[in-house]
Structures are given as C-alpha cells and as structure tokens.
Automatic annotation (TrEMBL):
The chain crosses the membrane at residues 6-23, 35-53, 59-80, 87-108, 114-134, 141-158, 170-189, 209-226, 232-252, 259-277. SUPFAM superfamilies: Multidrug resistance efflux transporter EmrE. The keyword Ribonucleoprotein does not apply. It holds the Pfam family EamA. This is EamA domain-containing protein.
Length: 278
C-alpha cells in the first residue's frame, strides 16, 4: 500500500474512534447513533452539487448499503448498552476484517500477497487481544458484537464494489449518507413518538454534527482507499481505530488500561509495519 493511502486510512481510523466515543458517552445511545448518521448527511449536502452523480449501476449498491447501515447503527447502540467498550469494540471491528480476508478471494477475486495477508491477520489478532481484558462481558454483548461484525463485513463488500463502479468514491459516499438517517429516525419515531425524538435532537444536535462529520469523512477515506488497494487490506488497517479508542478511553474517560491493551497496541503496530513492507 502506498504511504499516502496508509496515512489517510489511519486518519480515518482516528475519526471513527472519535465518533464511537461520542456514542458511548451519550445518555441515549440509539438516538445519538441516529443523530450522528443525520450529521453525516447534513455534512454531505453542501458538496453534492459539486460532484458527479454515481453511475446508474452503483445505485442498487447504495440502496443495499443503506439497509445494512441502518442495521449497523442499531447494533452499535444495542451492543454498547449490553457490554463494555473494551469487549464490544474489539469484537465488532476485529472480526469483520477477518471475515473479509477469509472470503475476499471468492467474492472479489482479490489475491493478497503473503506479506499483506500476514499484516492483515496480525492487525486482527491485535484487535481481538483487547477482548481478553473484558472476559466477563455478557453473552448478549458478545452475540450483538459478532452479529454486527457480519453486518460490517457485508456493507464493506457492498460499498467496496459500489465505490469502484460508481466512477467517484467521494460522490458514492456522500449520496449513501443521505439514506440511513431517514430509516433510523423513522424507526425511532415509530418506537418512541415524535415528541421524545425532537426533544433529544434539540438538546444534542451538536453531537450529531460533530460525530456525523467525522463518520462520513472516515468512511469516505476508507472507500477511496479501497479504489487504490485491496478491500481486505484497507479493512484491516482501518481497525487501528482501536488504538485511538484506547487513547481516548484513557485521556477522556479516565479508564484504567490493563496489560492486554498495551500488548494489543504493540501487535497492531507490528501489523501496520508488515502491511507497509508488503
């Protein structure tokens, strides 16, 4: 992978960890997740007029991805309610690239080099190591996290292909961002009523804008990178977001870090180096 691609994916990983921290810190994780999705859509709107429309062949992928993104945000909120971030985040983000690396040869006909595969697996091993510090997590949290890993792998495939055939990865990302918040808020209103949803939005709209801008930028950088490098490799490198989440947990949430977090950090860093040298 070229150095500029690696650096941009790492910056996207930082943004991803930041918006996840916003959801984790919120009092209502489901509505905060919907707000962040809406914030991404608002951030995208000013740029749509300056970008070409995605090719017609990409629109079915945008529709399919919107449904998967709806499921993703719902599972993120449910998993964070059920378990600690030290268990949930590594399982969600670590298992997804493992699934992609194991199946990309069949689905995308991408053959990873030995070095790229080694780097991918090393990063995944490092991310999953973080789950060792939360062995007492609930069974429900584990099930939700693993289910979301499957959703993440699914929309990564859909969007990796969709961005490639769209003609413009940035345009694809911005148009995609408009649909999930419609689904999320429609669901929220049907479950809680319009008054409760509007009240939460009025009090927390700024969280949605900040988190949404980071979310859309993070995913846009990942999709752009997927047009320059193998999807499985980009997906694995993006999981270094857990390192940034570690820093945030220590400096912002004042959480105590176990030895497993530092071990995982070293393993992930080695994986990144292997990817660069591959």
């Amino acid at each position: 992978m070229p150095l500029d691609v690696i650096l941009l994916v790492l910056f996207g990983a930082l943004l991803h960890a930041t918006w996840n921290a916003i959801v984790k810190a919120g009092s209502d994780k489901s509505l905060d997740a919907a707000l962040i999705s809406a914030g991404g859509a608002v951030s995208a709107l000013p740029f749509l007029a300056f970008l070409p429309l995605p090719h017609a062949s990409a629109w079915p992928f945008i529709g399919a991805s919107a449904i998967l993104q709806f499921a993703y945000f719902q599972l993120v909120a449910a998993a964070y309610r059920a378990g600690d971030i030290g268990l949930v985040y590594p399982l969600m983000r670590g298992c997804a690239p493992l699934l992609i690396a194991a199946t990309s040869g069949f689905i995308l006909k991408e053959n990873l080099s030995g070095g790229a595969l080694a780097g991918t697996m090393t990063i995944c091993a490092g991310v999953l190591t973080l789950a060792l510090e939360a062995r007492r997590g609930s069974r429900r949290a584990v099930v939700l996290s693993l289910a979301n890993a499957c959703v993440i792998a699914s929309y990564t495939y859909v969007d990796g292909i969709g961005a490639r055939i769209s003609g413009n990865a940035v345009s694809y990302t911005l148009w995609l961002s408009l649909l999930p918040p419609v689904l999320l808020f429609s669901w929220a209103v049907s479950q809680r009523g319009a008054f409760a949803v509007v009240r939460h939005v009025r009090r927390n709209w700024w969280r949605g804008l900040i988190g949404g801008a980071g979310s859309i930028a993070s995913y846009g950088l990942a999709l752009w990178a997927m047009t320059k490098a193998p999807v499985a490799t980009v997906a694995a490198l993006r999981e270094t977001a857990i390192l940034f989440a570690l820093v945030i947990s220590i400096t912002v949430f004042k959480e105590k870090a176990s030895i497993w977090r530092y071990v995982a950090g070293v393993v992930i860093a080695i994986g990144g180096l292997v990817l660069k040298l591959a």
